[in-house]
Protein backbone atom coordinates (compact mmCIF):
# COMPACT_ATOMS: atom_id res chain seq x y z
CA UNK A 1 0.00 0.00 0.00
CA UNK A 2 1.38 3.36 -1.03
CA UNK A 3 -0.17 6.67 -0.09
CA UNK A 4 1.05 10.20 0.09
CA UNK A 5 -0.19 13.22 1.98
CA UNK A 6 -0.87 16.14 -0.34
CA UNK A 7 -2.03 19.65 0.44
CA UNK A 8 -5.51 20.12 -1.04
CA UNK A 9 -5.55 22.08 -4.28
CA UNK A 10 -7.83 22.94 -7.18
CA UNK A 11 -6.69 19.82 -9.11
CA UNK A 12 -8.44 17.66 -6.48
CA UNK A 13 -11.59 19.77 -6.18
CA UNK A 14 -14.02 17.18 -7.58
CA UNK A 15 -12.37 14.31 -5.74
CA UNK A 16 -12.56 16.25 -2.46
CA UNK A 17 -16.24 16.96 -3.04
CA UNK A 18 -16.81 13.27 -3.86
CA UNK A 19 -15.00 12.35 -0.64
CA UNK A 20 -17.34 14.61 1.31
CA UNK A 21 -20.38 13.20 -0.53
CA UNK A 22 -19.47 9.64 0.53
CA UNK A 23 -19.58 10.70 4.18
CA UNK A 24 -22.89 12.51 3.69
CA UNK A 25 -24.39 9.52 1.86
CA UNK A 26 -23.38 7.23 4.74
CA UNK A 27 -24.60 9.72 7.36
CA UNK A 28 -21.11 9.83 8.93
CA UNK A 29 -19.16 12.61 10.64
CA UNK A 30 -16.28 13.91 8.52
CA UNK A 31 -13.36 14.20 10.96
CA UNK A 32 -10.01 15.75 10.09
CA UNK A 33 -11.32 17.79 7.19
CA UNK A 34 -10.88 21.33 8.58
CA UNK A 35 -14.61 21.99 8.40
CA UNK A 36 -15.26 20.61 4.91
CA UNK A 37 -18.48 19.09 6.22
CA UNK A 38 -19.77 22.57 7.15
CA UNK A 39 -18.95 24.32 3.86
CA UNK A 40 -20.66 23.65 0.53
CA UNK A 41 -18.26 25.63 -1.64
CA UNK A 42 -14.79 24.20 -2.35
CA UNK A 43 -13.28 27.63 -2.96
CA UNK A 44 -14.47 28.93 0.42
CA UNK A 45 -13.11 25.83 2.19
CA UNK A 46 -9.80 26.10 0.34
CA UNK A 47 -9.42 29.79 1.32
CA UNK A 48 -10.17 28.83 4.92
CA UNK A 49 -7.50 26.11 5.09
CA UNK A 50 -4.95 28.47 3.53
CA UNK A 51 -5.89 31.18 6.03
CA UNK A 52 -5.67 28.77 8.95
CA UNK A 53 -2.29 27.37 7.92
CA UNK A 54 -0.35 30.27 9.45
CA UNK A 55 -0.17 31.81 12.92
CA UNK A 56 -0.31 35.25 11.26
CA UNK A 57 -3.58 34.63 9.40
CA UNK A 58 -5.43 31.97 11.41
CA UNK A 59 -9.09 32.74 12.05
CA UNK A 60 -9.78 34.05 15.55
CA UNK A 61 -10.55 31.25 18.01
CA UNK A 62 -8.76 28.61 15.92
CA UNK A 63 -5.16 27.39 15.89
CA UNK A 64 -2.85 27.08 12.89
CA UNK A 65 -3.26 23.74 11.14
CA UNK A 66 -2.01 21.78 8.15
CA UNK A 67 -4.68 19.90 6.22
CA UNK A 68 -3.80 17.03 3.89
CA UNK A 69 -5.59 14.63 1.60
CA UNK A 70 -4.26 11.06 1.56
CA UNK A 71 -3.95 9.91 -2.03
CA UNK A 72 -3.32 6.33 -3.15
CA UNK A 73 -1.28 5.05 -6.11
CA UNK A 74 -4.31 5.58 -8.38
CA UNK A 75 -4.51 9.26 -7.40
CA UNK A 76 -7.75 8.62 -5.46
CA UNK A 77 -8.43 10.20 -2.10
CA UNK A 78 -8.63 7.55 0.61
CA UNK A 79 -8.56 9.88 3.61
CA UNK A 80 -8.06 13.33 5.06
CA UNK A 81 -6.00 14.45 8.02
CA UNK A 82 -5.75 17.75 9.86
CA UNK A 83 -2.71 18.53 12.03
CA UNK A 84 -3.13 21.30 14.58
CA UNK A 85 0.16 23.03 15.30
CA UNK A 86 -0.78 23.71 18.94
CA UNK A 87 -3.70 23.16 21.27
CA UNK A 88 -6.28 25.60 22.61
CA UNK A 89 -8.59 24.74 25.52
CA UNK A 90 -11.15 22.98 23.29
CA UNK A 91 -8.54 20.91 21.45
CA UNK A 92 -6.82 19.99 24.72
CA UNK A 93 -10.07 18.62 26.10
CA UNK A 94 -11.50 16.86 23.08
CA UNK A 95 -9.98 17.61 19.68
CA UNK A 96 -6.28 16.88 19.97
CA UNK A 97 -3.42 17.65 17.61
CA UNK A 98 -4.64 15.35 14.84
CA UNK A 99 -8.03 14.60 13.36
CA UNK A 100 -8.46 12.15 10.50
CA UNK A 101 -10.95 10.18 8.48
CA UNK A 102 -10.88 7.39 5.92
CA UNK A 103 -13.70 6.99 3.43
CA UNK A 104 -15.96 4.04 4.15
CA UNK A 105 -15.12 2.28 0.89
CA UNK A 106 -11.40 2.25 1.82
CA UNK A 107 -11.48 1.22 5.48
CA UNK A 108 -9.76 -1.82 6.98
CA UNK A 109 -6.86 -1.55 4.55
CA UNK A 110 -4.31 0.10 6.86
CA UNK A 111 -4.72 3.62 5.50
CA UNK A 112 -5.52 5.24 8.87
CA UNK A 113 -2.40 3.75 10.47
CA UNK A 114 -0.20 4.90 7.58
CA UNK A 115 -1.78 8.39 7.56
CA UNK A 116 -1.32 8.75 11.31
CA UNK A 117 2.32 7.65 11.09
CA UNK A 118 2.98 10.25 8.39
CA UNK A 119 1.13 12.93 10.40
CA UNK A 120 3.22 12.16 13.48
CA UNK A 121 6.34 12.86 11.40
CA UNK A 122 4.84 16.25 10.50
CA UNK A 123 4.10 16.91 14.19
CA UNK A 124 7.70 16.08 15.06
CA UNK A 125 8.94 18.53 12.41
CA UNK A 126 6.70 21.20 13.99
CA UNK A 127 8.45 20.68 17.32
CA UNK A 128 5.56 18.88 18.99
CA UNK A 129 7.01 16.49 21.56
CA UNK A 130 3.78 14.92 22.82
CA UNK A 131 0.82 14.56 20.49
CA UNK A 132 -2.75 14.36 21.76
CA UNK A 133 -5.21 12.32 19.70
CA UNK A 134 -8.81 11.75 20.70
CA UNK A 135 -11.66 9.58 19.50
CA UNK A 136 -15.12 8.61 20.59
CA UNK A 137 -14.90 5.64 22.95
CA UNK A 138 -17.29 3.79 20.65
CA UNK A 139 -14.87 4.16 17.70
CA UNK A 140 -12.91 0.96 18.33
CA UNK A 141 -11.13 1.09 14.95
CA UNK A 142 -9.75 4.56 15.65
CA UNK A 143 -8.71 3.62 19.18
CA UNK A 144 -6.80 0.60 17.78
CA UNK A 145 -5.12 2.80 15.19
CA UNK A 146 -4.03 5.29 17.85
CA UNK A 147 -2.74 2.57 20.19
CA UNK A 148 -0.91 0.83 17.32
CA UNK A 149 0.85 4.16 16.73
CA UNK A 150 2.01 4.37 20.35
CA UNK A 151 -0.98 6.09 21.92
CA UNK A 152 -1.34 5.77 25.68
CA UNK A 153 -4.81 6.35 27.11
CA UNK A 154 -4.70 9.21 29.63
CA UNK A 155 -8.39 9.41 30.45
CA UNK A 156 -11.93 9.59 29.13
CA UNK A 157 -14.18 12.61 29.38
CA UNK A 158 -17.90 12.99 28.91
CA UNK A 159 -19.06 15.42 26.25
CA UNK A 160 -22.84 15.48 26.25
CA UNK A 161 -23.85 11.93 25.38
CA UNK A 162 -20.42 10.93 24.02
CA UNK A 163 -17.43 9.60 25.91
CA UNK A 164 -14.15 10.85 24.42
CA UNK A 165 -10.95 8.85 24.88
CA UNK A 166 -7.78 10.96 25.11
CA UNK A 167 -4.48 9.38 24.04
CA UNK A 168 -0.93 10.79 24.11
CA UNK A 169 1.89 9.77 21.79
CA UNK A 170 5.45 10.78 22.66
CA UNK A 171 7.46 11.77 19.59
UniProtKB/TrEMBL annotation:
The keyword Transferase applies. The keyword Transferase applies. Pfam families: Acetyltransf_3. Keywords: Transferase. InterPro entries: Acyl_CoA_acyltransferase, GNAT_dom. Residues 29-171 form the N-acetyltransferase domain. PROSITE patterns: GNAT. GO terms for molecular function: acyltransferase activity, transferring groups other than amino-acyl groups. Transmembrane segments: none annotated. PANTHER family: ACETYLTRANSFERASE. This is Acetyltransferase, GNAT family. It comes from Peptoanaerobacter stomatis.
